[in-house]
Amino acid sequence: MTVTGHRRMSVLIPRNGLPPEILDRIVLLLVSDTAGFTAIASLSLVSWQFRQLAFRRYYATLRVRSARHWVRSCRIDGMYSWVRSLDTSTPFFQYKLDALSRFASLQDLTLDFSADGLATQRSRCLLLFKNVAAGLSSLKLTHLPRIDVTLLSLLAGRFPSLSNLDLSCTERLDEQCCWLCYEESSSCVVHSPIPDCFPSAERLAVCNSLSAVTPDHLPSHLQSVFGNALKPLRKLEHLFLGIFLSGADMLNCHFDRCATVVISSPRTGWYSSPPFGPDRCEICLVEHGATVRERERIASALLAKLLPSLETIGWSTYFAKDRPGDDVERKATVFARDSLEGKAAMGRRGSALDKAG
Ligand SMILES: [Zn+2]
Ligand SMILES: [Zn+2]
After folding, report:
1. Is the domain of 159 the same as that of 48?
2. What is the pTM of this model?
3. What is the model's pLDDT at position 223?
């Protein structure tokens, strides 16, 4: 071993003789405890080296709880190299937004857009994402007012290393209070962009063609718009687009039909039933369930064809079933391989029909 090697070892091995790897494992076990910072508080007081190990693990995930918490976190020495995963909300960056660009090791970013609206989403995204490290591998945006080509193009151009992209609008629908709140919340989010919620002709074309989807008529427009916007993401493995592929009219009809239902109360007499979604409405299930599931499968097949690295594609849905990929949180996941095989089968059926014609 060289002299330099000896010197390096003497710096790395603490006086108690425990190798740093073992210490690191101990810290990892402590941090995984739910006790929070108290779990590592004593350990961080032992020595400078113990403190560095403890903080590096503890701050690997930073959940920002307020604007003040963000500002205070940015003052901690070493924070910019420790944080790998950041979970926060957009208004917390009202101060020290430029500090975001110093998180050079950031791999995983989760952002809550509840505080933004349809008018502010674009400018907020432009401002935020130019300050985020381009090497991001996982990005999750929740409570988005809309998912459109502008957003997809921005993300694909800014973060080419993404392997996991999770965008969602539909959790902005408020079913916790009353029918009025449910309906009002639905007007502030593009939860179902089919058939004509998009402002430009190009995007309208996508939606119109999607509304006319049949198993033997695959819309190429979806590929040319959503798919092309995401095409720079060559490492993308998991994509979730939290929009409903049911028509926007379906929810409006559901409001008209079901919001007027009143039920009896033994204490207060009669009152309107608590709000519920089309997934608990027999009429909506029968009228739209099968069509929407078929749309989800076809749209997934189109995206999987254009984005070969994809393994799973998810959508928000009111029609999840008891089967692999579906869950009670109104999400449907299509496995890309399955959808590609489905697409190939449809292609064979289409060419057979052509010959027969
Ligand atoms: Zn209400
Ligand atoms: Zn209904």
Report:
1. no
2. 0.80
3. 57
Q: Which domain holds residue 332?
A: 60-245+278-356
> What are residue 234's DSSP bridge partners?
none
Q: Are residue 218 and residue 104 in the same domain, yes or no?
A: yes
Task: Tell how far the Cα of 188 is from the centroid of ligand 1, in angstroms.
Answer: 15
| Same domain assignment for residues 26 and 110 | no
286 and 320 co-located in one domain: yes
What is the CA(18)–ligand 1 centre distance, in A? 59
- Helix 248-258 and helix 179-186: axis angle, to 10°? 160
Spatial distance between the Cα atoms of 148 and 113, rounded to a whole number of angstroms: 15
Instruction: Identify which of 175, 183, 121, 179 has the alpha carbon closest to the alpha carbon of residue 152.
Output: 121
Counting ligands in written order, which one lies closest to the CA of residue 253? 2
**Ligand 1 mean position to 186 CA, how many Å?**
13
Q: Cβ contacts of residue 323 below 8 Å, gap of 6+? A: none
User: Shortest CA distance to 86 belongs to which of 28, 131, 33?
Assistant: 131
On the 0-12 / 13-18 / 19+ scale of CB atoms within 10 A, 260 is exposed
Residue 108 lies in a domain: yes
Ligand nearest to the CA of 252: 2
Tell me the CA–centroid distance for residue 147 and ligand 1, in Å. 26
Task: Return the ligand number nearest the Cα of 257.
Answer: 2
Give the residue, 106 or 295, on which the prediction is more confident: 106
61-98 tens-digit pLDDT: 999 999 999 999 999 888 999 999 999 999 999 899 99
89 and 167 within one domain: yes
As a whole number of Å, the CA-based R_g of the chain is 25
Contact 177, 186 (CB under 8 A): no
- How far, in Å, from the CA of 76 to the mean position of ligand 1? 42
Neighbours of ion ligand 2 (CB under 5 A): 254, 278, 281, 284
Q: How far apart, in whole angstroms, are the C-alpha atoms of residue 84 and residue 57?
A: 10
